[in-house]
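It is worth pausing here to work through a concrete case rather than discussing structure prediction in the abstract. The textbook approach is simple: state the sequence, then state the predicted structure, then interpret. We follow exactly that order.
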Amino acid sequence: MQLHQLEYFVAVARQLHFTRAAEELHVAQPSVSQQIRKLETELGVRLFHRMKRRVALTPAGETLLPRARRVLSDIEEARAEVQELAGLRRGRLAVGAPPSVSTTLLPRAMAAFHAEYPGVTLSLREAGSGDLIRYLEQGELDLAVVIMPARHPALHTTPLLDEELVLAVPPDHHLADRDSVDIAELRETPFVMFGEGYDLRVTTLAACRRAGFEPRVAVDGGEMDSILRLVAAGLGVAIVPGMVIEPGAGVRGIRVDRPALTRRLALAHRRDRSLSRAAREFATIMRRLARR
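Step two, the predicted structure:
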């Protein structure tokens, strides 16, 4: 059993597709198929059910997957520790964040980090907080910005930023000239809703229900970029972080007074893995930018 075979196996298990796994790994698809067959031959079991358009893990594959991830994670941790000795002249740092952060605060942090440590390759994964916590637990991310509370025994979190949530409306909306709004006033207003798994969806539903109504949903299942475009197009309103309301975005942000809506962002990493020097430096940059 070779290390690259485990890497190929984990990639196929993640994508459930040989071609997409090969694209992720930047290798030819036949090479991935060949190495998986060799691994199956060595183990004496089939790891995947091959179907016409996709694959699925067999029970043997499901048993191997967490162990393979753990091996790769341990190898990556050892590599990271060794690379620290190189003074961050090379290496890799995997960072995750919700879409609202990855379109605002995170690009500035990544640019500042890259300017100081150009030899370290940065990878970014956008997802909701729940998914990011799972990726951290599985060892696929070194550091992530998550929404508090993020109670998980395997994770360590440090507060980063408290941000205000606002109501995004199109410029010609009847509320657009208001400085503030109560949630109760939105009983008959159509909403553009974030997809399942996003904390902003949970926050919006909870605020409306506390005001005694279920929101009228015009469009369901969006992400940050599409939410803002749909609001700008006049399909509805949405609760979004104030930091995403920028000039030229085609939407206006209105403060929500009752109830006032805020959320706390935190930096999270696995408790059982010490932060690499690269992750520590990146966290320092993030905290510095957040204070501004």
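Step three, interpretation. The chain is about 40% helix and 25% strand. Residues 1-64 form a domain with the Arc Repressor Mutant, subunit A fold (CATH 1.10.10.10).
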